[in-house]
Design a protein that fits this description.
about 425 residues; alpha+beta; UDP-n-acetylglucosamine1-carboxyvinyl-transferase, Chain; 23 strands; about 25% strand
Length: about 425
């Protein structure tokens, strides 16, 4: 076993056409929602990222039978034999999205046993909004060390108020409420596109859900939900990352299955930088052409439809190489600027003040050895490596593989010189030679 790394060589003017995979942050919660039904469901456009395989393992641990069809990018989930309620502790520890099995297990079986998910580099990432509101719905918790057993005789429908529109809490509460007698209302709900994708599959299963302004979800409980076929939405965060790869290398890209209508603020900021973006009818199909002289822009992250926190790190790379001074404020997570010190190693000029980064654009970055702290930081460092002079070695490969479905190969198809050297395989490099260590 050697330390895995991604090797990226400077690759200017990326260009070409690439299609997106399914959205990780829709796939994970939708896979978990299948626990609400009894029988075989089929999910299409499933992304084959590590976190999806982790979620599959978690569901198998509960008794589900999972069959991946790699050819057609589908997964069949059969929940007929689900009869266990303890989520696999190691997976809970490494993937926070595991918490999303709680709602379905409580709704279907009245019981869920979880390990408290560890905090992560982005911050404490507590689950108080989940637990407090499950308690309001009648759930009783017994904690032993960092294991939690949740039981409920009969879920009570409630008027739930979220002080912050938490994506996971909205999803978990909604998946409990769909089988709870009566009407549950979630005030100040998250309405990210991935949450809407979850709502669309729940309604296909037979759930009664309405979305009201402002940011309110109303759920009328039903007695049972049916297995379904559903196509996962495309990954808007992967779209943003691919567009930024073209932006930082002065290139151009066409994404036929990209949907501009779920990236409005992000694309607005790119236009303010001077880049050209065209979408085809109803927002589908995104054409991006980079400007030769990008202007730096400031932004702050917040809940949808504001600038997405998951594109903050990759967008910071574009500001590092743009003309002028910009300010980025991260308002969703308390510690999501860990990529700054790695970008500084590459010559970026960034000052951090609390959750704000002040960036002064530079002409060029220098390739060097850097480390990725989380999924989106790993993407940012790949983008920085594509733009930087020389070559960049990025450790923390597991983050990149957790979050993306062969994004390295998508970038390679646009002309990127990028190789993942991992312990499973040594992938062929772009000039078709094996990269020896
Ligand atoms: C989802 O995480 C996404 N993950 C995250 O993507 C994304 O960054 C985040 O939503 C915000 O859009 C998945 O969908 C699997 P939150 P989630 O609950 O649900 C605090 C990626 O890179 N909070 O909306 O965990 C929390 O600490 C990942 O793909 C509480 O205080 O996000 C954070 O500061 C990273 N108490 C803020 O709310 C709680 O009970 C937003 O968290 C829950 C959350």
């Amino acid at each position: 076993m050697f330390e895995e790394f991604i090797l990226v060589e400077q690759s200017l003017k990326l260009s070409g056409e690439v299609n997106l995979s399914g959205a990780k942050n829709a796939a994970l919660v939708i896979m978990s929602s299948i626990l609400l039904t009894e029988g075989k469901s089929i999910l299409k456009n499933i992304p084959f990222s590590q976190d999806v395989f982790n979620m599959a393992k978690l569901l198998e641990g509960l008794g589900a039978e999972i069959k991946f069809d790699f050819e057609n990018k589908e997964v069949e989930i059969d929940t007929s034999k689900v009869a266990k309620f303890k989520a696999n502790p190691e997976i809970m520890k490494k993937m926070r999205a595991s918490i999303l099995v709680m709602g379905p297990l409580l709704a279907r079986f009245g019981r869920a046993e979880i390990a408290m998910p560890g905090g992560c580099v982005l911050g404490l990432r507590p689950i108080n909004f989940h637990l407090t509101n499950f308690k309001k719905m009648g759930v009783v918790f017994i904690q032993e060390n960092d294991f939690l057993t949740a039981t409920v005789e009969k879920l009570i429908s409630r008027r739930i108020i979220l002080e912050y529109p938490s994506v996971g809490a909205t999803e978990n509460i909604m998946m409990a409420a769909v089988l709870a007698e009566g009407k549950t209302t979630i005030i100040n709900a998250a309405l990210e596109p991935e949450v809407l994708d979850l709502i669309s599959i729940l309604k296909k299963m037979g759930a009664k859900i309405n979305i009201l302004a402002p940011a309110t979800i109303e759920i009328e409980g039903v007695n049972f939900l049916n297995p379904v076929k559903h196509e996962i939405m495309c990954d808007r965060l992967e779209a943003g990352s691919i567009i930024l790869a073209a932006a930082v290398t002065g290139g151009q890209v066409y994404i036929p299955n990209g949907d501009a209508s779920v990236l409005d603020v992000f694309l607005l900021k790119l236009e303010e930088m001077g880049h050209t973006i065209k979408a085809e009818k109803d927002g589908k199909g995104i054409h991006f052409v980079a400007t030769e002289s990008p202007k730096a822009v400031s932004f702050k992250t917040a809940q949808y439809p504001c600038f997405p926190t998951d594109l903050q790190a990759p967008m910071m790379v574009a500001q590092c190489l743009a003309e002028g001074v910009s300010e980025i404020e991260e308002t969703v997570f308390e510690n999501r600027l860990l990529h700054v010190k790695e970008l500084q190693k590459m010559g970026a000029k960034i000052e951090v003040e609390g959750t704000k980064a002040i960036i002064t654009g530079v002409k060029e970055l220098q390739g060097t050895k850097v480390n990725a702290s989380d999924i989106r930081a790993s993407c940012a460092l790949v983008l920085a490596g594509l733009a930087a002079k020389g070559s960049t070695t990025i450790t923390g490969v597991h983050h990149f593989k957790r979050g993306y479905d062969e994004l390295d190969q998508k970038l390679e198809s646009l002309g990127a010189k990028i190789v993942i050297n991992d312990n499973e395989i040594i992938r062929k490099s772009s000039n078709n030679k094996q990269v020896e260590l």
